[in-house]
Amino acid sequence: MYFLRCSYCKKTFKPDITQFYCSCGELLDYCFDDNFNLSDIDFNFSGFWRYRKMLPVSTKTIPVSYNECFTPFEKAIIDGKEYFIKHDYLFPSGSYKDRGSSIMLTVIKENGVFDIVEDSSGNAGASVAAYSAKAGIHCQVLVPSSTSLEKTLQIERYGADLVRIAGNREQTTNEAKKLALHTYYASHIFNPLFFQGIKTLAYELCEQCNWQQPDHIITPVGNGTLVIGLFLGFSELLSAGIIKKMPGIVGIQAENCSPLYQHFKNKSNDSKTKETIAEGIAITNPPRFSQIISCINNSNGFLEVVSEDDIIKSNKMAALNGYYIEPTSSVVFAALDKPSIKSLTGKTVLILTGNGLKSYHK
Questions:
Q1: Is residue 59 part of a domain?
Q2: Residues 120-148: pLDDT tens digits?
Q3: Fewer CB atoms inside 10 Å of the end CB: C or N, the chain?
Q4: Is 271 exposed, middle or buried (0-12, 13-18, 19+ CB in 10 A)?
Q5: What is the C-alpha end-to-end distance of the chain, expressed in Å?
Q6: Which residues neighbour 14 within 8 Å (Cβ) at sequence distance 6 or greater?
Q7: Do 154 and 198 share a structural domain?
């Protein structure tokens, strides 16, 4: 029912939980040769596991799950304009990445893996650690030394072995790859299983919209897990004829670290990357760079950037309106003043990704 396919050259391979790369050097994704059917939804589950027939998981497998429910979806008026807000930070570990962790940990446990390594800027590490604890899997998480205390404490409390790396996000990944030579690499970036969980956000959004697709999705983007996952999910719904068009995916980056935006705008990215309060998207060289750009282009979406001042201001304003989110999530609110965003018409969804309890700032 499912197979691996190269995100670049489209070469296909049989499913293999240890294979992340194509022979051409690009990364792989899971794909299906069956169409999604609304009759396939398993209403015994209250959340994303209801779509298990479209996931690379045996129907006999017991999910590694906390019986997650749909995250809230609400209409909100912001500066006189209607938006829809998806509260995907309201998962057990406090971020949308629980979607990917649940599916990935289920499959690797099913395959007899009980020792893993992951690298993260915080949220993915906490999520993988949480679901590893549920699965009874030993987990080692590498993070940059600059990662917020709140996130590192959360990772350790789940029982994972935390390793702080004296370097940036890319250097942390390089160290994790060395360890992955001797243990399973449960990466939320390289491992295609993770994206199968993220794609359920597209299904869930459409179900909450009575199986009508939104017109635009605005989301933070760093390593592109949301952009790619959403594109995979909406592509499957489009192929099945459940939705009529692909929503435009709009990725928001911090101005201080915006390699995708610079490429999208054909601008030089020679300037030195600066620190950003939006640590979750402080990614200087995303491994799936070309795939992210392809998903943005093929959805007729675009990329925008926001300043540090606007991120901080938006984070404070979000909290005053009841949204206690981390700065990375706040970039979607900060972007609403951009002319390119203001000009959008139709149903526009803002994805809120990480809980405000995960970071401290004044």
A1: no
A2: 989 999 999 999 999 999 999 999 998 98
A3: C
A4: exposed
A5: 50
A6: 3, 4
A7: no
